[in-house]
Amino acid sequence: MRICGVIFDVDGTLLDSMFIWDTIGETYLRSIGYEPRENLNDTFKNMSLHQAACYYQTEYGVTLSIKEIMAGVNAMLERYYRFEVPLKAGVKELLAQLQRSKVKLCIATATDRYLVEDALERCGVLSCFGEIFTCNEVGHGKDEPEIFEAALRFLGTKKAETVVFDDALYAVKAAKAAGFPVAAVYDSHEKNQEEICTLSDLYLKDLTQLDKLRNFLPV
């Protein structure tokens, strides 16, 4: 595996933010007067925000529009992304190494663009990425290949040399099924580590493991 392009996930990969998503589904639903059923947050974590808004309508009978639901959830998330969410360990060093090696970088995320931009700008790494692709803008979740294919077209690199960095099993599965090499990043909020490790081409306990990447970078 030679790395010439990288498609980065954000939450759980670049940002230590998955704790927010553990509760946001239930918190939002209660805020508009609905009692969530068991395991709602697990369901919510595997969806884009648009998919979650549709789920609220079909499964709970929420009468707000998709746009209104998304705006309500984002309002709860804004404070965390704008002021609090930190980078995961090793992110700045990894991005610097990739840039020194002339690797092209972009983002594929289920989180809305302005939240990602706010957090990465505050953390000083937004300029590292050529583009941000979001599920809402692409029109597909990360359980489907479209967002990865869109990112690949932007990078202009060969698929076999374009690595998807992600922490979530459903995204790892989709990227692998689409033919991308995958570097899986451990996050404690993802429970399916054994399966992720088996599926991925490279498994990183954290992003400080630069020694695992150097052999794959262009000279």
Regions with pLDDT < 50 over 5+ consecutive residues? none
Distance between the termini: 14 Å
- Integer-rounded radius of gyration: 17 Å
Would you tell me the overall average pLDDT? 93
Number of helices: 12
Tally of discrete structural domains: 2
E-strand count: 6
CATH class of the largest domain: Alpha Beta
The sequence of SSEs as H and E is EHHHHHHEHEHHEHEHEH
The percent of residues in helical segments reads: 40-55%
Question: Could you name the CATH homologous superfamily of the largest domain?
Answer: HAD superfamily/HAD-like
As for the CATH topology of the largest domain, it is Rossmann fold
The amount of beta strand, in percent, is 5-15%
EC number: 3.1.3.-
GO molecular function: phosphatase activity
Keywords: Hydrolase
Pfam families: HAD_2 (PF13419)
Précis, in short:
The protein has 219 residues and is an alpha/beta fold. It has helices at residues 18-21, 24-31, 40-45, 49-60, 66-84, 91-100, 113-123, 135-138, 146-155, 169-177, 193-199, 211-214, and strands at residues 5-8, 104-109, 132-134, 162-166, 182-185, 202-204. It has 2 domains: 5-16 and 86-213, HAD superfamily/HAD-like (Rossmann fold), CATH 3.40.50; 18-84, DNA polymerase, domain 1 (Orthogonal Bundle).
Please provide a written account of the structure.
With 219 residues, the protein is α/β, with parallel strands linked by helices. The chain folds into two domains: 140 residues, Rossmann fold, CATH 3.40.50; 67 residues, DNA polymerase, domain 1 (Orthogonal Bundle). It is 47% helix and 11% strand. It has twelve helices and six strands. The protein has a six-stranded parallel beta sheet with strand order 3-2-1-4-5-6. Strand 4, helix 10 and strand 5 form a beta-alpha-beta unit. One of its GO terms (molecular function) is phosphatase activity. Keywords: Hydrolase. It comes from Enterocloster clostridioformis. This is Haloacid dehalogenase. Its EC number is 3.1.3.-.
